[in-house]
Amino acid sequence: MILTLAGENYLNTLLKDEHGRALYRIDTPYRLFGGGRTTVTRLTGQTDHDIAWIEWNMLSPDEFHQHGRTVEASQHLPHKGFFGTCVSSFSRRDDVLIESRKRVLVASDGQSYVWKDGSHGVKVNHTAVPTCPAVVCSADPSPPNPRQLDCDDAALSRVAEYHTRSLGFFSKGHPAYLEIAADGVPILDDIVASFVYMEKKRQQRKRSRASAAAGASASAGA
Fold first, then answer.
1. Which residues make Cβ contacts (< 8 Å) with residue 30, sequence separation at least 6?
2. Is the N end or the C end of the chain the one with fewer CB atoms within 10 Å?
3. What 3-state class would DSSP assign to 196?
């Protein structure tokens, strides 16, 4: 399954399938001073259903609401790995440069998956062994180096992969889209909702790295 973003802004867009049908709406009302709430809605054609919302807080941890409960985003999608245990001592908002790029997702099927981002996107994978803990593998070395969701085991099966927009300079151009494997369809709501959070975190890190590099360059030239 392919879910194509109708616009460039992943926080305000429709996700459309191969037939052009809008299956999800992602809505984030504008706020002058940042923060706000993103709502993810499944579009059924009759009764739309809000499947999740994310509260982007300025002075407190972000909150994630799904499956009838509201928790801190760091609990809903906890870090995996060394920095997942120590990053909180550096920042409450999880946007420091050294934070783990891996986050664990416990989906509605009761199984664990792991997101990991690359420089241009993310991926989600699942193991062939149901009891295996899940992780996200490294992004592909070749463009577009998308975001992925994987399981932490030798036997990996890609569940979902986000491809950022390509202008077609070095390959065929395409809009941004989520590629969902058959194994990912039963947990599609979980994938879409967690994708929104992961993509925002990736873009925050990208901006932080750019700012740090610019600051270092300015200091070197002084």
1. 36
2. C
3. helix
**Sign for the pseudo-dihedral over CA of 192, 193, 194, 198:** positive
| pTM of the model as a whole | 0.76
The whole-angstrom separation of Cα 93 and Cα 106 is 21
pLDDT in tens, 73-111: 999 999 876 544 333 333 334 343 344 578 889 999 998
Residues 55-81 have pLDDT tens digits of 999 899 999 999 999 999 999 999 876
* E runs forming strands in the chain: 2-5, 13-16, 22-27, 36-42, 49-56, 63-66, 69-72, 102-106, 112-116, 123-127, 147-150, 156-163, 177-180
CA distance 145 to 139: 5
If 0-12 CB within 10 Å is exposed, 13-18 middle and 19+ buried, where does residue 134 land? buried
